[in-house]
Amino acid sequence: xxxxxxxxxxxxxxxxxxxxxxxxxxxxxxxxxxxxxxxxxxxxxxxxxxxxxxxxxxxxxxxxxxxxxxxxxxxxxxxxxxxxxxxxxxxxxxxxxxxxxxxxxxxxxxxxxxxxxxxxxxxxxxxxxxxxxxxxxxxxxxxxxxxxxxxxxxxxxxxxxxxxxxxxxxxxxxxxxxxxxxxxxxxxxxxxxxxxxxxxxxxxxxxxxxxxxxxxxxxxxxxxxxxxxxxxxxxxxxxx
Amino acid sequence: xxxxxxxxxxxxxxxxxxxxxxxxxxxxxxxxxxxxxxxxxxxxxxxxxxxxxxxxxxxxxxxxxxxxxxxxxxxxxxxxxxxxxxxxxxxxxxxxxxxxxxxxxxxxxxxxxxxxxxxxxxxxxxxxxxxxxxxxxxxxxxxxxxxxxxxxxxxxxxxxxxxxxxxxxxxxxxxxxxxxxxxxxxxxxxxxxxxxxxxxxxxxxxxxxxxxxxxxxxxxxxxxxxxxxxxxxxxxxxxxxxxxxxxxxxxxxxxxxxxxxxxxxxxxxxxxxxxxxxxxxxxxxxxxxxxxxxxxxxxxxxxxxxxxxxxxxxxxxxxxxxxxxxxxxxxxxxxxxxxxxxxxxxxxxxxxxxxxxxxxxxxxxxxxxxx
Lengths: 240, 371
Hints:
The complex is a heterodimer of chains A (240) and B (371). Chain A is α/β, with parallel strands linked by helices and 240 residues long. Chain A is built from three helices and eleven strands, in the order βαβββββββββααβ. Chain A starts with a strand and ends in a 13-residue tail after the last strand. Chain A has a domain at 88-231: 3 Solenoid (Pectate Lyase C-like). In chain A, helix 1 links the parallel strand 1 (2-4) and strand 2. In chain B, helix 2 runs antiparallel to helix 6 (166-172) and helix 7 packs across helix 8 (238-252). Chain B has a single domain (14-367), classed as Glutamine Phosphoribosylpyrophosphate, subunit 1, domain 1 (4-Layer Sandwich). In chain B, strand 13 and strand 14 (308-313) form a beta hairpin. Chain B has 371 residues and is of the alpha+beta class. Chain B is 29% helix and 26% strand. Chains A and B meet through loops of A and helix 10 and helix 12 of B.
């Protein structure tokens, strides 16, 4: 199935997609239509353009490949499947994500991977090629977030308050020096061989989709952020 | 259970205001139809209770006159307001703002525009600077004359707003018949106040206009402080306070727009502590000197002014914003789709960080409005 989304309202577009039995769906000229591929299982979506907010929310097994940038709330509460973005992504990506993988070629906005969580066989993964905005992995409860910092020249690839309130999961950042000024709930260490093994298949997938030398990328310096079991939150926090 | 309460839980309205803007650095005149097309794909960020636009460089034949746009509830309000204005200004032009009949735009007030020049003697006797004289007149009408509301008061620019979806409001005002080097647009989803014509964005004073997506929790603290300096917040809408704060800091206190950003979206103290000098000293000075003007809560704003445009998001970036550039054109909007719909191929597209102002100005200010 191939649809031209030009000027279509999101409801009509999504109804047409749901009414069709085809496993492969290509949508051209996407421009801001919301909720594409929401809750979809076992299908493959190829999108050309700029999908609107809430792409792949609650998605449960489908694959979405976007040739363009994405906006806000990609993969919110996503359960299974994969989102591949040949571009950058807006704020609150992978919010509460519970499984599957999101690969972003470029940068991601603020609040990526907030409160991602893992349970039994579900282990969500968010891979960002470029840099991330503030509050990356805030309240992280499970899963893996990696920011490869491509183009950042070895600088810390996030903004402020990375991992605030983190109490599970793992954040891996490629940078030359250990990040400083992180909240007390976060422990920082250099990447071990075990971490590298965990990250490797995702970096290889990243390079398969977007190009680049996975082994060269993997051989560089990374830091790993994990929750500090000694400093968990016992009360609400605010900043001033 | 009332019907409304029933609907509250049953109907999900996926909304949150929309903002968009177009700016030509070379001062090229851009047709108003383009800003309507830009805001249109973000339809679902508004709920039909307010839409509006500001255009700069749109009145080249009256570029030296103050263009006052007025809403009147009735003829009595018009009479009272005109009596007040004619005592202070020479009326160079007065006309109904042209509108198109549309079924979706209802409850129209009387909508007039005046091109005004301060009467020399009255201005001199007031001992005020000309812009202060004009600003006080606009604020006086809004606070003191019942049923009259000045919603635009700058030179060679104008605000157009109404209750409705923004794309309908733009067509209602026939914006395709105007051209300017800068346009801003707003689609409203009111959270605290009823949707009424005066409450639509942009909010303005003189040539400063503000469109705002968000809801500031510091409204009352900001309002109490700004009202000490002669501003009357009559519209009970947070964006009005933002417009006055920006006017106060730039026009009365002489701050640059970068400094204004350092006041209203000041970095956290923890962020300031890690800044190198002299950046740290400047940031802490701005926070200390103008603490009551720190705006808290989610916002992304577009501030239009003669010859330029500033975009700013709150320091936590609780509202989305993207900037697209193509040749001399700059586009800033809540969503990328609002840019791509009118400029599919861009040279560069990026998202500014929270509290990081994006300021664009005309390459040659002389060109403003003469394209």
